[in-house]
Amino acid sequence: MAMWIVIVALVLSLLVGLVVPMERLQGKGWAARAVGYPLSAIVMGTIWFFRGRKETFPYVPTALLVTPFLLDLLGNLFGWFDNVRNFDDALHFVNWMFLCAAFVAMIHPGVAAPWNRIALGTGFGASAIIFWEFLEYLIMKSGTSGLHLTYEDTVSDLLLSFLGGLVGSFAIARISTKKS
Length: 180
Prior knowledge:
Elements: H1 2-19, H2 30-36, H3 40-50, H4 59-77, H5 80-83, H6 87-105, H7 114-141, H8 151-179
Helix pairs in contact: 1-2, 1-4, 3-4, 4-6, 6-7, 6-8, 7-8
């Protein structure tokens, strides 16, 4: 149920941003988000399908993976990035918690020890934030103006996302170890 709520909220948020003219969305790359963000809803199902559908569908990992994209959209729609102090910083920490938790949740507890899954999740999160910051750099260089990127922002995003990924990896590894 949570998975469907998050996916529907993602789609509705994207549609609102595309249909309702809002000055605060100018220069924020909404069209690119409308193309890329829905892909988050099919990643885990695709992995599950190619694994041979031996286990139940990954509802929780899917909800965990879609949540950061939804939170980003909501932050833009409601102007929180521009009007709430340190919202971007908090979101980097929280979003990487969800992202890495989704990654670790897809690793069956019987396949790797909890510390291995934590290390894999944290490494995945670190790699993901490096790639994300690189994409932001390319978007900025292409002429998009509403991102307000600075060196200080990039470095803090890297650190906060890494720490959020570590916390999310640890939390889901502990939770899934107790269940198995």
